Backbone:
């Protein structure tokens, strides 16, 4: 059972006998969400954060592998850093119902679409097999040192 969104600080007066004439908070989003909205909502928030971090990681790896422009790759790194920062800061701050998480989610979705479009517009060049590449490298080294050249 939960109190309701943003109800915990004013309700502390009625929940404790040792009220010190100041509102208290739970000081942690991972406890704030279940205290104010219930356990099913913390499960949804954790799933949302996990899915967003995984999406940001996929964006970062896909853009780096495709040789995307530095601006797109830097954006992917920044979003991943922002999400990690939110999770770390959320361990010490009550910011579950503020805008940063939702902005990061929106930017991650937008970057996913940009990455998908950029990768589709710039297909990766076909890379020769490792065996063919090794043979070509060995042949060029032989030519460079003059063996077999006439």
Residues:
């Amino acid at each position: 059972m939960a109190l309701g969104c943003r109800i915990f600080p004013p309700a502390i007066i009625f929940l404790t006998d040792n009220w010190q004439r100041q509102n208290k908070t739970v000081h942690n989003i991972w406890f704030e969400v279940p205290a104010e909205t219930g356990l099913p909502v913390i499960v949804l928030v954790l799933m949302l954060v996990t899915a967003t971090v995984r999406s940001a990681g996929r964006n970062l790896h896909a853009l780096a592998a495709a040789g995307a422009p530095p601006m797109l790759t830097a954006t992917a790194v920044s979003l991943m850093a922002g999400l990690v920062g939110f999770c770390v800061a959320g361990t010490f701050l009550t910011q579950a119902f503020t805008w940063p998480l939702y902005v990061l989610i929106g930017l991650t979705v937008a970057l996913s679409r940009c990455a998908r479009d950029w990768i589709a517009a710039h297909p990766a060049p076909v890379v020769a097999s490792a065996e063919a590449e090794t043979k070509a490298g060995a042949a060029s080294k032989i030519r460079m040192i003059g063996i077999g050249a006439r």
Notes: The first helix runs from residue 8 to 15. The radius of gyration is 26 Å. The helical segments are 8-15, 29-37, 39-66, 70-90, 100-121, 130-145. The mean pLDDT is 79.
